[in-house]
Amino acid sequence: MAPYISAKRKGIHITNLTRTARFLSEACDLVFDAASRRKQFLIVGTKNKAADSVARAAIRARCHYVNKKWLGGILTNWSTTETRLQKFRDLRMEQKTGRLNRLPKGDAARLKRQLTHLQTYLGGIKYMTGLPDIVIIVDQQEEYTALRECMTLGIPTICLIDTNCDPDLADISIPTNDDAIASIRLILNKLVFAICEGRSSYIRNP
Amino acid sequence: MAATVTASTLSSAASLSIRTKPRLSIPKPIKSFLYSKSPQFLSLSSHPTTITRAQSSDIDTSFFDNVNPEDVIVFDPPSPPEDFVPPPSFDEGPIETEEEIAAAYEELYGPAFSGESILGNDVYVMDSKVKKTTGFGSKGKKEKIRDGFEERVVQVRRVTKVVKGGKQLHFRAIVVVGNKQGQVGVGVGKAKEVIAAVLKSAVNARRNIVTVPMTKYSTFPHRSEGDYGAAKVMLRPASPGTGVIAGGAVRIVLEMAGVENALGKQIGSKNALNNARATVVAVLKMRQFRDVARERGIPMEELWK
């Protein structure tokens, strides 16, 4: 990470913002192009500071997201995840048609608990039909499992990297401060804007 | 920062993880996207191509040659054009109702697994697309021969795990999968029944497939040795008409690869799985003469002296 650090003041590393800006613009280009080709994105961010902004950013960009804990094997064990998503969908249908009220209390309570469980963990990926094409990861140390899964499957990744992370693992690593909500929001803003632009450019000329 | 450095950044980043399938290539120079609205067109190939081995020239670390970590670098972004309005962040902007969000998602992806359909699509659309994993009575046998790969079972063994209540029996199947055109894979699978174990191992085998370098007479370019565990295998090319002269696991791997003339010997352990893996290791070490000559920059005749 030494090339990406510009100075060290009072024991804190200051990232070199020119390089960050360059990597960010590369990432935006990539994301814009992918969005204009109708690729599917997945944003992963489970830090409790960042969870809320990740969800909102993803909803704004109409992408899938993982907000709460990344269950191991979401991508590598996609067939099992699909089973869970089917169960989620069936439970939602039952809730909408009102079948849950007709069951005895114990069963209804159990099913409702399952529903909330699935909603928290899989709520963001319920529109995902297959493996995503690009994955954006907010903190490499926190989401190491997610990064490893994408690497084994060969999915391109964009990762926000802090000074204690390995920049060679992801495809495009953007050196930032991943502990500050403001910096995460800035990067996500730019990427989300790029995705939206890409999608609208597809609509204009497919 | 020169624009050409960006390509090498990405290639260095992409090629350092060798075991994955080839990633995107982003060759073009970058204008600062932050203020310009014109897109750059990058080449993205998201479908998996054949697995290539990383050459030593792929790893391009020249990005770091001119980088001095102690440089004082001034941040000097280009100024935005006059009519530039920064886009609203995702927090501001109109608050969308749940219905609008659901409608937008459904327009993009279809109803998928959400359980509700606002645009009137069929909610159960994913049922036909999701492959039903094996259940008794479903069409489990239909998935035998797909995508052109032939399977052959090398060994099926009954293995035991001793627990407090008694012995738990499983079957372990080793299967070699290959088309006869130079692609093979060795897989292991365990299950409580033989057929299930064979299916699992076939799936596993399809996941680690290697290409065998072959000459036009269906033999190897040169000798090679490979070892895995205590099993050591020696492979040697042979003239046409010889056939595959090798024992057990090695013979099956070579036959499924489409190699017609070869000699092979199991030196060391005779364990079937380890010998199959050792042949794969040996085959991975082989290079075609053309590639070596190209890498070293010398004509092919020099290699045979």
TrEMBL record, chain A:
Signal peptide per UniProt: none
Source species, domain of life: Eukaryota
Keywords recorded for this protein, A-Z: Ribonucleoprotein, Ribosomal protein
Pfam families: Ribosomal_S2 (PF00318)
InterPro entries, per the entry: Ribosomal_uS2, Ribosomal_uS2_bac/mit/plastid, Ribosomal_uS2_CS, Ribosomal_uS2_flav_dom_sf
NCBIfam families: rpsB_bact
Family of the protein in this entry: Belongs to the universal ribosomal protein uS2 family.
Stated name of the protein: Small ribosomal subunit protein uS2c
Biological source species: Hevea brasiliensis
TrEMBL record, chain B:
Keyword presence, Ribonucleoprotein: yes
Entries under InterPro entries matching the protein: Ribosomal_Su5_D2-typ_SF, Ribosomal_uS5, Ribosomal_uS5_bac-type, Ribosomal_uS5_C, Ribosomal_uS5_N, Ribosomal_uS5_N_CS, Ribsml_uS5_D2-typ_fold_subgr
S5 DRBM domain location: 149-212
Keyword Transcription regulation: no
PROSITE patterns: RIBOSOMAL_S5 (PS00585), S5_DSRBD (PS50881)
Family: Belongs to the universal ribosomal protein uS5 family.
PANTHER family registered for this protein in UniProt: RIBOSOMAL S SUBUNIT, SMALL RIBOSOMAL SUBUNIT PROTEIN US5M
Name under which the protein is recorded: Small ribosomal subunit protein uS5c
Provenance organism: Hevea brasiliensis
